[in-house]
Structures are given as C-alpha cells and as structure tokens.
What does this fold into?
Amino acid sequence: MIVRIMGEGQVTLAESRLADLNELDEELLAEMENGDGPGFRATLQALLAKVRELGEPLPDDSLEPSDLILPSPDATLKEVQDLLSDEGLIPGTA
Amino acid sequence: MDAGPVLWVLSQVLELESVRRGRAKPMSGVMKRMGMIFRAKANKALDRAEDPRETLDYSYQKQLELLQKVRRGVADVATSRKRLELQLNQLQSQSGKLEDQGRKALALGREDLAREALSRRAALQQQVTDLETQHSTLQGEEEKLTLAAQRLQAKVDAFRTKKETIKATYTAAQAQTRIGEAFSGISEEMGDVGLAIQRAEDKTAQLQARAGAIDELLASGALDDQSGMHKDDIQAELDRLSGGTDVELELQRMKAELAGGTSGGQQAIEGGSTEEQSRQQPQDTPRFDKQ
It folds into this structure.
C-alpha cells in the first residue's frame, strides 16, 4: 500500500498496518469537522510519525499513484478543509 | 487552455471533487478522502481526452512547465533568504553598536543614556529574533522545494520514457489502460508539488513585504532613533561627554601629581589586584606541573 505525505513524497507500507493508521485517521477527520485545531495538529503529527516509522520511501522515479494521501506536517486545519472542499484552492482567485 | 500547470492540476482537483461529491459513497478518514480526490483528478483528465495518447503529451508539457516553476520557486526563496541574512547582519551590528554605547555611557556615569541605548537595543533584538524565525522558515521551505524539484524531475523523466513506449507500442484503446497508472502517479505528484510551490510563494511574498519594511527602517535610520531624537544622538552625546571627561581626567591626574605622589584611590586598586594575582597563582602552578 502506498501512502503520500504531501510535500515529502511517498512511502510503501504493509496493508496490515492500515488498522493502526485508520484509528488516527478517523480521529483526525472528527477533529477537522469539529474545528478542533490543536487536536488536529497533534493527531496529524502522530499519524505522520506512524507512517514515516512504518513506511519505506518509494524511489523518486516511481510513477505509482498513492492509495492514501496525508497533508503536509505544517498544514493547518483550514488548509486541509479547503483541500477537501470545493473552494479555496485555486490560486489567484479571491 | 492557457492555465498554468498549477491551475491546470488544481482545477482538475476541484472539478473531480464536485463529480465525486455527486456520486461518491460516504468516506471516512482524511487520508482516504484526499487519496480519492487526487485519483479522481487523474481519471477525469483521461476520460476527457479522445485519444489518451494526446493527454500524455499535454501532461508532459505541463510537467515541464511545473518543473520550471518549481526551480524558479527555489531561486526566489533562496534570494529572500539571502536578503534576510543581509538584514540580520545589519541589525546585529547595529545592536552591537548600541551595546558598546550603553557600556561607554555607563562608564561615563550617564545611566540615563545607557538606559536609552539598551532599550533601543532590546527593540532591535526583537527584530533580530523575528528575522531569525523567518530565516529558518525560509530555509525549511528551500530544502523542501529543492527535494520536490528533484522528485519531480525524476518522475518527469520516468514519465517521458513511459509515454514514448506507450505511444510507439499501443493503440489508443490499449493505451487507455496502460497509461492509467503512470498518469495518476505523475498528476498526483504535480498536484502535490503545485500546492507546495503555491504555499512557498505565499510565504515568500509575506516575508518579502516585511523585509521591505525593515530595509526602509534601516535606510531611514529610524531603528537608531525610536525616541524621535536626532539620528545618532547617543553617539553625539557620548562623544561630547568622553571629550569632556578626558580633559577632566587629565586635570585630575595633573593636580594629583602637583600635590605630590599618586592618589590613595589608585593605591587601593593596585593593592587589590596584586593580592588577587597572588591568590590565583598557587592554583595555576600545579596545573602547569601536571602538563
């Protein structure tokens, strides 16, 4: 299974580790939807740490799409909300 | 289709997000949703093309544009970083100067002047700390973009090879399935890099605005002059004072000479320092012996 950390690149990790990640991912989503900024940051860091720990980096010339994509470590709750919504992403439009 | 590479990639993210919203099954988890959005984007671009092989060329073109954009981004960030370093040096030498002035003023018994110099220095130090934070932000940004450019370059090269193989070997129908994965992989990278460069540009623009303000401050001398007094007022006062003091000291020395012998105060100081030296000596000597 391939996971991308935005701004960092892709790693591959065993499907069996997905359960570990899922728990944190659900938590992250709940925090995002509740607008819990500090919780969101903490969970995102925990999730990223886990992915980095369990994953093996993919070579740079790999063209494989990712199964899962994670926001970059410094992404804010607002940025991720925008990423997942219809608005706020296109550069240059007010 | 004149959209830049980032706009092109992002507009597809958005289009597909809308499509996905209409028919998607409920999805949980942030990373799953994000993965879905990026995948949908690539599929949509492929679906739209009559001959997927044309999409390959078009995408390749966009990849090269994006690569250019990322390289320019790295250069821009580096320029901003160097400018900050220059400013930091200027602020730090300014701060050092104020500290010296403070020390001198205190030596001349002008605590008020020393206080003024030190409080200006404190304000400067605040700016320095601020700039240092910004500097490390920019450094991080520069490193990330440099790595992103490397990754993208490697992927673009791999994509070009794959594209040529597909164009030479497969019919349009076969190509459709063949290119799916390579195309998803590269467009995902483009979306990611596109956002990264966008963020870097935003950050750089913010920092440049502040750097411009600091340049103006440094140029106007306002950093020297936060009290609204004349620019190098502290220095002028110190020069005046120390000029006067030198004369005073000289006069005192002469008076003491005329009165015969050195002053009692000086004797006390000399006596004290000699005592100190003799106390330190026993400690120093064994150390030399050991070596």
